[in-house]
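C-alpha cells for Phosphoribosylaminoimidazole-succinocarboxamide synthase. Go.
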Amino acid sequence: MARRKKIYEGKAKILYEGPEPGTLVQYFKDDATAFNAEKHDVIEGKGVLNNRLSEFFMSGLNAIGVPTHFIKRLNMREQLVRQVEIIPLEVVVRNTAAGSMSKRLGIDEGTPLPRPIVEFYFKDDALGDPLVTEEHIIAFGWASQQDLDDMVALALRVNDFLSGVMMAVGIKLVDFKIEIGRIWDGDFMRLVVADEISPDSCRLWDIKTGQHLDKDVFRRDLGSLTDAYTEVAKRLGVLPTNVTHATKPTLIN
C-alpha cells in the first residue's frame, strides 16, 4: 500500500493528501496541548471522540446551510475534507466571560456578556496568537473588509447553532474558536468553516453544576479529559449511553 503524503502536522491533527484533487484527509491525534504546547500529554481515545464530535457539528452546520470544509467521516480517526486556503486568524465568539477575556479585562469568570462578542487572533504560535483588531487585519492584508463581514456573519450563525444544540442537552456554550478558509471555484471565492469544532475548541459548562466539559479540564487539572469529552458525546447521542470504559469508547456508526 502506498504511503500517503503528509501535507501538514499540527498539535492535534495531521493533514494528508486526499484521494481526489482539492481534498485532504484530516487525522485526529490523541495529543492534548495547552499554553501553546508548553503543557502536553497523550490521552487515549481523545482523537476518536473529537473526530466524531467534529463530524456531528460540521454535518449539522452543512445541513442548515452554513458551509464547511467537511465532506464525510472515513473511519474512527479520519475525515475527508475540502482543501482550503486558511485565513491566518482564529475567530473566537464569546457568550460568557472566561479564560483570557476574564484575565485581560478583569471580568469575573462566568459573567454573562450583553451580546456575543467576536474577537480575532493572529495565528502565530511564536507570538502566542495575539489578539488583533480589524484595522490590523485589513492593514496587513490578512483579510479584506468584505471577508471580515462574512467571517463575523459565519461565526454568529455557528454560535446560534451550537448554543441551541448544547442548551438542548444541558450544556452552556461559553465560547468557541473556529478557523475559516477560502475555497476558489475559478474566479469565484467563498468562505467556509474549516479545521474542527470539538471540546478542544469550545468552552462547555454543565448548566446545572458548572462542571467543565472542555479542554480546561486538561489546562487546569480538573480531572479526566476523556471522561469530560465522553459526557458531551453521550449527551449529543454520538455515544451509546451504556459506555462503561471511557478511555476506549465504542462509537455508533
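The chain has a mean pLDDT of 92.
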